[in-house]
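Thread: quick sanity check before group meeting

JM: Hey all, I'm pulling together slides for Thursday and realized we never actually wrote out the predicted structure for the chain we discussed last week. Dropping the sequence here so it's in one place. If anyone has concerns about the input, flag it before I start.
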Amino acid sequence: MTYSKIIWGLALSFVVGFCCHLAQIPVPSPPVLSGALLVFLMSSGYWLTDRYLAARATRQAKATS
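JM (edit): ok, ran it. Output follows.
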């Protein structure tokens, strides 16, 4: 399994946050913990669904071979 998407996503989020800090504009993220948790859980759900569907497709491809 490759973690390149996760690493690129984290790097991009730090770059956006850094640029927002330099430009003194509000960071495009929720300012409270519950909002940040919601974003984290939605991202985790997307990632887990992607992994599940990829594994399912691999299993189906092996079963038909």
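AS: nice. Helices lie at 4-23, 33-64. The mean pLDDT is 83.
JM: adding both to the slides.
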